[in-house]
Amino acid sequence: MTTSFCQILIPNPAIAIKTQEFLKGRSAQYTRSSGPLCDTAMNALFMNIQEHFIHEKIATPNVAPRTSRPRLLKLLTDNLNSANATIINGRAGSGKSVLATDFARHVGRAVAWYKVEAADNDLRVFCEYLAAAVRRQRPTIDAKALLELTETVESDRAELLAEAFVFQLSETRAEPLLVVIEDLHQVYDGDWVVSFFRRLLPLLPADVHVLITCRSLPPTPLWRMRSKQMLRVLDESELAFTLEEAIVLFDTYGLSDKHARAAWNETNGRAATIAEFAATPGRAGRAVADDILSFRHSRFPSLPPTPDFQT
After folding, report:
1. Please, what sign has the CA dihedral across residues 280, 284, 286, 291?
2. Structural domains for the chain
3. Which conformational region is residue 3 in: left (phi greater than 0), alpha (psi within -120 to 50 degrees), or beta?
4. DSSP E strands: which ranges in the chain?
5. Residue 26 and residue 112: Cα distance in Å, rounded?
6. N or C: which end of the chain has fewer CB within 10 A?
């Protein structure tokens, strides 16, 4: 008797077979009834999108940073082959989202993006957005089947939903995929978070990598997965600008390495703060920079007016 991938993933044979039949049935129903539809129409049909659905939450940001940071991009690229998932952890203003956006531009694979909000702490809502984000790159994902599964799975058994999601990902033959989940800390209070991600991350197919940004580390059972080589963590100390990176950033504004060094010494390389030091006159951070340089008896030339900088 042939053992299906779904049966390998789900220990309980009865649940495995039921899940496989459910997903296969939905897939067949889709093939018979859908026909050639645009992505928006397919999402509306299979996800039964309600008025509350916010499409901007699954749109990949289209904003390029002032300058890329090859050091961090290399770390993230190395993680694609050495781990199932990466967490970028840091407080607001540490540069998490900017780095994730820049990596998505350079990664060379399809990108599914989901920006999490506090209202998404309900498992069904979270699943709806996550499935919609992935469907943009892998249209064969049966979001409706996954959503219907949330109706029968208790939140403390969310690992069953994770297994069904992995099964669908594994059944698809497509280009490698990067799934970015931004601001996961917004739903840490959901009682399903640990069981869902503890099951999802180890089972991810080799061609799928999950990148998570958060302001604090996930609950202990998740970040301890680092010891099993399944998870890599970039923390705030690694996100900080090095002096060399600060010099490159300030050079894009026509500012000297002396100005970059002064700003870097005062900010410890914190992304948002060092950006303020290079911002236009009149903004709080620039005023602080001018005061510092003035206090040092004009050791460096005055900072010329510069364009605005967005982190």
Report:
1. positive
2. 5-239 (3.40.50.300), 243-295 (no CATH)
3. beta
4. 85-89, 110-115, 177-182, 208-214, 231-234
5. 22
6. N
What's the Cα-to-Cα distance from 287 to each of 63, 109, 178, 247, 281, rounded to whole Å?
Answer: 26, 42, 40, 20, 7
CA atoms lying within 13 Å on the CB side of residue 132 = 27
Residue with tokens 């060399």: 244
What angle in degrees, to the nearest 10, is found between the helix axes of 159-171 and 123-135?
10
- List, for residues 13-54, the tens digit of each pLDDT value: 444 444 455 444 444 443 333 443 344 543 443 444 455 789
* φ/ψ (deg, to 5) at 29: -60, -40
Q: Could you identify the residue written with the tokens 């496989």? A: 20
Token pair 């999490």 in the structure block, residue: 116
Side by side, the strands of the sheet bearing 177-182 are 110-115, 177-182, 208-214, 85-89, 231-234
First-to-last C-alpha distance (Å) of the chain: 56
